[in-house]
Amino acid sequence: MKISKAVFPVGGLGKRFFPITRAIPKEMLGIIDKPLIHYAFEEAVDAGIEEFIFVTRHGKYSIEDYFDFMSAHAKYFNIKMGSVCYVRQNEPLGLGHAVLCAKNLIGSEPFAVISADDYILGESCVGEMITHYDGSNMVAAMNVARSEVSKYGILDVERETDRLVIAKSVDEKPSVGTAKSTYGIVGRYILSHKIFDVLSDLAPGVGGEIQLTDALLKMIPICGLTGFKFAGKRFDCGSKEGLLSAILHVASGDDKLNCVVENFYKDRK
């Protein structure tokens, strides 16, 4: 099925990176020479996305400036820009609320949601998901350490195949003792447009926010929920540890930069 639109929720406060995020949006933090949002955008382009919807807020003008520059110099970037637009999220009320802000630009077709916090190295994760999309709500899923389940939406597995996990429920940030599995949701989604009707009436959940996982749970009887086991290597760049790991991993693939990393470790011995 053709998926032509992607939503990028970039209205968060980036509290884990204070104080730098008082001046620079978290999504503009860099992995070597490209900001996180650039990698997310490239992944969407590689997946065949044609319309890019950024849900932003006050103080994130550098994101708009960056993509204005990219559009004006598309040949330099060697990238097909498509249509780029912006919607305002006046308050950071959660991922579900951010997705709801894009309602009027989606219409009645399935769409992707891509979080720049999750840098996934390798084949386009969203592209893989689109290839396997069957009409149910789909999320990127990966096995996480049981000690880490409280950081994720966790799938309650009904059955699974080589690449797909069919979920009978989903729980947002469960405790270690109550988690039904260790399949955590990573920031890639293919969603039915019907999710907007659910989000519009959804009460705040964990953390007092409108949780996208709560809407996915309510929709399971309507269209199901499938987790997709993606092939790429994922870095949680919403954390300092994850961002540093991503930087070091990318640097290790460049001869000059890898020499810097190796020399750093030699000097510490």
Describe the fold and architecture.
- The structure is a single chain.
- By secondary structure, this protein is of the alpha/beta class.
- It has a single domain (5-238), classed as Spore Coat Polysaccharide Biosynthesis Protein SpsA, Chain A (Alpha-Beta Complex).
- The protein has ten helices and 13 strands.
- It has helices spanning 36-46, 61-72, 74-77, 95-100, 103-106, 125-132, 195-200, 212-223, 240-252, 255-268; strands at 5-9, 30-31, 34-35, 51-56, 83-88, 111-114, 118-121, 137-143, 153-160, 164-172, 183-191, 225-229, 233-236.
- A nine-stranded mixed beta sheet has the order 5-4-1-6-11-8-12-10-9.
- The chain is globular and about 55 Å long.
- The protein starts with a strand and ends with a helix.
- The model has no long low-confidence stretch (mean pLDDT 93).
- Note the total helix count: 10
- Can you give the helix content as a percent range? 25-40%
Summing up helix and strand content along with how strands pair, one would put the structural category as: alpha/beta
Question: Based on the structure given, which CATH architecture is correct?
Answer: Alpha-Beta Complex
Number of domains: 1
Would you state the CATH class? Answer: Alpha Beta
Distance between the termini: 54 Å
Average pLDDT score: 93
Shape: globular
The poorly predicted ranges are: none
Report the biggest beta sheet as strand number plus sense, adding barrel if it closes.
Answer: 9 strands, mixed
Strand content: 25-35%
Tell me the series of helices and strands, N- to C-terminal.
Answer: EEEHEHHEHHEEHEEEEHHEEHH
What is the fold-level CATH name, i.e. the topology? Answer: Spore Coat Polysaccharide Biosynthesis Protein SpsA, Chain A
Q: For the largest beta sheet, what order do the strands appear in spatially?
A: 5-4-1-6-11-8-12-10-9
Total number of beta strands:
13
- For this structure, what is the CATH homologous superfamily? Spore Coat Polysaccharide Biosynthesis Protein SpsA, Chain A
**Over the alpha carbons, how many angstroms does the gyration radius reach?**
18 Å
